[in-house]
Amino acid sequence: MGLIAVPCWLLVLGLPKLSWRRRVTWASVHALSICLRIPFKVTGEAPAPGEPGVIVANHESILDSFALFGALPGPIVFVAGGDLATHPVTGPFLRRLGAAFVRVDEGMYRSSVRAVLAELGDVARAGERPIFFPEGGLSVEPGLRRFQLGAFVVAGEVGCPVVPVAIVGTRRLLPPGARLPRRSEVEVLFGAPLTPTGPGWREARGMAREARGAIEALLADAPG
């Protein structure tokens, strides 16, 4: 794992072009799957490069981002918590891959929240599909938690579909708090795109419920 992960980290920090850095990360994910004999499977139809959409996925392990990197072709932008920006290892890596760092505290004014969501809307309009983990951070307890609304507000404002995604096996592979991976099959399941009914927080709540239900159904249908 170290023989692949460390060179990948160094190359991402050193390569001058974003497209090269993303290609190296994609190749490293698949090389790691082969070397560790971890079956990696993609089910359903992933959005094609350049196809607009906001992608929402369940979040069970720090490996979820890498699983999505290996499953999705074309440019993607991970929406990460603001606290990751200052992490000495994860922060520079995600920044060089073009991640959008978001920190929305309870004490922030509504105008500040709107500004954050507007920036993410610009990302979606530019054709770089933003990826949200609407549950927020990781939890040691398994199961799908309540969804935050930011992804669905962005989709409603831009008018682009929401693509629900279920990630299976990453918790078994590397649970929260674990240091060493275990052998486990990883599968990324893409659901049918969901069309927003319009802009606004009320519509976002309805879309969040619909997306959460779609991911629950994908997880229920997944083997194991």
List the helices and strands and how they pair.
Blueprint (H helix, E strand, L loop, with lengths): L1 H13 L3 H18 L4 E4 L10 E4 L6 H8 L4 E6 L8 H7 L3 E3 L7 H16 L3 E4 L17 H9 L3 E7 L1 H4 L12 E5 L10 H21 L3
Parallel strand pairs: 1-7, 2-5, 2-6, 3-4, 3-5
Antiparallel strand pairs: 6-7
Helix pairs in contact: 1-2, 2-3, 5-6, 6-8
Could you describe the 3D structure shown?
With 224 residues, the protein is α/β, with parallel strands linked by helices. The protein has one domain (39-221): 3-Layer(aba) Sandwich (Glycerol-3-phosphate (1)-acyltransferase), CATH 3.40.1130. The chain contains eight helices and seven strands. The chain has a seven-stranded mixed sheet with strand order 1-7-6-2-5-3-4, sandwiched between helices. Strand 3 (76-81), helix 4 (90-96) and strand 4 form a beta-alpha-beta unit. The longest helix is centred in the last third of the chain and has 21 residues, at 201-221. The chain is globular. Residues 107-112 have low confidence and may be disordered.
How many domain regions? 1
Radius of gyration from the alpha-carbon trace, in angstroms: 17 Å
Distance between the termini: 25 Å
Helix content: 40-55%
Q: How many strands, what sense, and barrel or not for the largest sheet?
A: 7 strands, mixed
Q: Which strands sit side by side, in order, in the main sheet?
A: 1-7-6-2-5-3-4
Structural class: alpha/beta
Strand content: 5-15%
**Average pLDDT number:** 84
Low-confidence stretches: 107-112
Q: Count every helix, treating DSSP H or I runs of 4 or more residues as helices.
A: 8
Order of helix and strand elements from N to C terminus: HHEEHEHEHEHEHEH
Shape, please? globular
Gross CATH architecture = 3-Layer(aba) Sandwich
How many extended strands?
7
